[in-house]
Amino acid sequence: MKVLLTGGAGYIGSHTAVELVEAGYDIVIGDNFSNSKRDVIDRLKKITKKEIKFYEIDFTDYEAVDKLFEEEKFDAVIHFAGLKAVGESCSIPLDYYQNNIDSTLVLLKAMKKYEVENIVFSSSATVYGIPKEVPLKENMPTFCTNPYGWTKYMNEQILKDVAKANPKMSVVLLRYFNPIGAHESGLIGEDPNGIPNNLMPYITQVATKKLPLLSVFGNDYPTKDGTGVRDYIHVVDLAKGHVKAIEFSFKNRGTEVFNLGTGKGYSVLDIVKAFETANEVEVPYVIAERRDGDVAECYADPSKAEQLLKWHAERDLVQMCKDSWNWQQNCTNNF
Ligand code: NAD
Ligand code: UFG
Question: What is the per-residue pLDDT for 194?
Answer without folding.
Answer: 87
